[in-house]
Amino acid sequence: MIYKKSHTALLIISNTITIIPYLYFLSLSKEQSLSAALAFALFYTFRMTGVFFLQTLTALFAPSLLAASVLIGGAGALVGILSTWWSAALLPAASLLGISASWLPPADLMVRQKVKLTEQPLKNDWKEALFFLFVLLFALRLPDDLQGIGLFGSYFALFVLAAKSSQTFNNLPKRPLMQRNQLFNKQFLLYFFFFLLLFGLRAARLIKSNALFEWAITGFLFLFALLLITLTKRSRSWKQPLHLNVLTFIRGVIGNFLFLFGSVYVTGRLGAQALSTHVYLPYALGLFGAMFLGGKLAHRLEKQLVPTYLLGLMAGVLLFSSDTLIPISLFVISFFNAGLNQWLTKQYSTAKPDAIEQQSLAKYATQSKGSLVHQFLLMTLLFVILRFEHQPLAFLFQLSGTTATNQTSRIQSFLVPAKWGSIAGVLCLLVGGLVVFRRNRKEK
């Protein structure tokens, strides 16, 4: 079986592949070259929308999906190594790693749940995990000319080790990876439109195209309105209870608020040099804190666990209102959001063995929808503020390179209302989630 030997390499990959390559491709995109900008846009778009493609399938086999994710990720890392000498290889590397980042975490979750049902042990060597994590973080700190080969080489070694130590390619079922009844069903169209809109939005910001940015925002608002109009009808076919869908959606929104808006705001107010101390470090500490303390918190609070998570998230979002408290705010948000994810994973893992694949996909897809909706609404809010302040759209494109010392007044007029609008919107969503959860508890 898959986890007979060691799960450590897969643990590190599934918990870092959505973040560390993101930071690397983001740093490359600041070079202002077209290939670097498109590489980041491709990685991010495939990472965020790949799970929607999996939902178009009528049958999905977890071991085969995990093997495919490892194979695609390993190929992406290998091509990424070649990009050090051949820049054109950066685009396929970004695409392959983006697909792997989208598929591997849910595939790993599916297989771990199946392994638990068969009572086979999961082995994680935490010392080995910390070593691998240190290697990846060290690769990010290498000089620019060595960073790519260091990072891609580390991931390639991890993918090879994951395939070997976890026996990923052993005992695969003799049936296809995935099956589809029809080519163009509703989920595929949703995936296709989200892919185009998100790629357009990201590419527009990187290549500084006003027309493409406005097209992406307009297209999203149209799609968002259509989804809202049909929400009542679609909710009747939901396989998950309302409170579970709402809380999963909220987790996606919070994750995007923490990482995307947190990065934009900190960069604009304090400069890009503050990202490590004000965003990335609090984010990582919150994740590790939840990993080690989440079980104890769940044991002590029990029935009050979810309300505590939501109230903790509210407190963290409120702390974001003070610039001096931003690191504490993002640590608190990261901690409680990771704790909420642990609780959600347990809720989805109660599925029957034959429903594990679709349950896991539902969780990741709903989270992605929350993240995408927040991202587009945030960009729409920033767009409206720019128009209200009579600022050119180019100011939004240049924000990532702005510091708090050279354009303070413009940043104040732009980011302060965006901050309060974001805080108000997220707080309303959290209050709504708490109300829905308490109502579900009363009905029981």
Automatic annotation (TrEMBL):
UniProtKB keywords: Membrane, Transmembrane, Transmembrane helix
Protein name, entry field: MFS transporter
TM segment ranges: 7-27, 33-53, 60-79, 149-167, 188-207, 213-232, 244-268, 280-298, 310-336, 420-437
Record keyword Membrane present: yes
Species per Swiss-Prot/TrEMBL record: Enterococcus casseliflavus
Record keyword Membrane present: yes
